[in-house]
Design brief:
Layout (H helix, E strand, L loop, with lengths): L17 H25 L4 H20 L6 H25 L14 H8 L4 H18 L5 H94 L4 H29 L5 E3 L1 H19 E6 L7 E3 L1 H22 L4 E10 L2 E8 L28 H11 L3 E6 L5 E8 L19 E2 L1
Parallel strand pairs: 2-4
Antiparallel strand pairs: 1-3, 2-8, 4-5, 5-7, 6-7
Helix pairs in contact: 1-2, 2-3, 3-5, 4-5, 4-6, 5-6, 6-7, 8-9, 9-10
Length: 447
């Protein structure tokens, strides 16, 4: 097997570089200077010398003028083949006009491909074409010599062509490897920069976690007083004014709100510590609770549709965390619908059993996902809501899902909008990964 690098048709030719084209221009000017010497030595009327010198200069000037302006690599290589072969053919006329073996140029003529390699160092096809011309002309010009001498000229000419073509091929391979090495270095530097950004984001998130833990601790003390006092007021009201049903209901709602604050405080402290207690969780009940908690936002902008089949199995997740994730997704869906400014939109939440667990999907017909892919959606502090967003909701939601052994992904909704899919493993350990969701089969129920 040969160690051949893969073809790279888009590799820019060195012949198109400004430096190589300047070399071609310099040689073209020197060639015209030699025209005066040739005419002085072989007569002004020597048409072969005139044609040869002008032909060489014309080919080199064309190389200087056009090599940097041909964008198509295939067309450029065809042009270079014609230019190099034309230069070799024109130089043969100079050799003929100056007397072939009796002139000063035939001894130099077999080396022409090596000179051409200065201008086209990575074009083996062009040098091969030029070498074919020099070998053919040399063979004809020296055909009258004894066989041994003729063979020497032929071998010398072919060797020069071989060196030029082989050198060009090796140079091309070297350029490809250098290019691949540069691409690898750039990819490594990009990855290091990304890792540094992720590390900085992780540090910021850890700082917020520590801050949240401290705030949660400070909230707990006054919250305990509020909860105790509400319980005392409710008990006294029941004893002294049992007929005040409205006040009792308001107190019950207040105590429920206080209990919700307690759970949020516990979630903040648990998130700061990385604590989680995934266990068998009723997914349908968690969805209903999340809908109740997010109803204040959804009811303003969207119509909610459920697709919750009966008999969903228990999933392995922390219930409070699952509710928090679903509330985040539902509120984000409401924000997207409102941003679309198309009137009342639709938010759909569906759940379905799959092999190894449960999939919950939240869809909306809002503005859709931001351009640039979905990976950045889950990066801490990335937000499309401007000053109104923290950029932590989806990051924390994915963190919760991964703690349970699940996942949270985002995608486009058919027809416009966004679709977020929450993958939750089953309560019983599954033998393999959770299967991808099939097409929704449950009937939507409008609420």
């Amino acid at each position: 097997m040969t160690d051949r690098a893969p073809a790279e048709p888009d590799l820019p030719s060195e012949a198109a570089s400004r430096e190589r084209r300047r070399v071609a221009l310099a040689i073209a000017v020197m060639n015209l200077a030699f025209l005066a010497l040739d005419l002085a030595g072989h007569g002004v009327g020597n048409l072969a010398v005139w044609a040869g010198r002008l032909g060489v200069s014309a080919a080199l000037l064309a190389l200087w003028r056009w090599a940097g302006h041909i964008a198509d690599p295939v067309a450029l290589r065809r042009f270079l083949v014609v230019a190099v072969a034309g230069t070799a053919a024109a130089f043969a006329l100079i050799c003929a006009g100056t007397g072939w073996l009796h002139g000063p140029y035939l001894a130099f003529y077999p080396l022409l491909p090596i000179v051409a390699a200065i201008m086209v160092p990575d074009e083996p096809l062009a040098l091969l074409a030029g070498s074919a011309v020099t070998v053919g002309v040399t063979a004809i010009a020296t055909s009258h010599l004894p066989p041994g001498t003729w063979a020497f000229w032929l071998i010398a000419s072919a060797s020069a062509g071989f060196y030029a073509v082989t050198g060009a091929e090796l140079y091309r391979r070297m350029r490809r490897r250098a290019r691949a090495s540069a691409a690898a270095r750039e990819a490594t530097l990009t990855e290091l920069a990304r890792a540094g950004q992720q590390r900085a984001q992780a540090d910021r998130l850890a700082s917020i976690g520590r801050l949240a833990s401290g705030v949660a601790h400070e909230i707990n003390n006054p919250l305990a007083f509020v909860s105790t006092n509400l319980a005392y007021v409710e008990e006294e009201l029941r004893e002294r004014h049992p007929g005040e049903a409205g006040l009792l209901e308001a107190l019950a709602e207040s105590r429920g709100g206080v209990d919700r604050i307690k759970r949020i405080v516990q979630d903040l402290r648990g998130f700061a510590r990385g604590a989680s207690s995934p266990g068998p969780t009723d997914v349908a009940a968690a969805v209903e609770e999340a809908l109740r908690l997010a109803s204040w936002r959804l009811g303003q902008v969207a119509r909610v549709e459920r697709a919750l089949p009966a008999g969903l199995p228990a999933a392995r997740a922390d219930r409070a965390e699952l509710v928090q994730v679903l509330v985040n997704l539902l509120v984000n869906a409401a924000d997207a619908v409102e941003e679309a400014r198309r009137g009342a939109g639709t938010v759909t939440i569906s759940a379905q059993e799959v092999a190894g667990g449960v999939h919950v999907a939240v869809e909306d017909d809002g503005v859709g996902l931001p351009p640039g892919g979905t990976a950045q959606l889950f990066e801490p502090f990335f937000t499309t809501k401007g000053a109104g967003g923290t950029g932590l909701g989806l990051a924390i939601s994915r963190e919760f899902a991964e703690r349970w052994g699940g996942a949270l992904t985002a995608g486009e909704r058919p027809g416009g909008g966004a679709r977020f899919t929450l993958v939750i493993p089953g309560a019983a350990p599954a033998p393999g990964p959770v299967a991808p969701p099939p097409a929704p089969a449950a009937e939507s129920i409008t609420s």
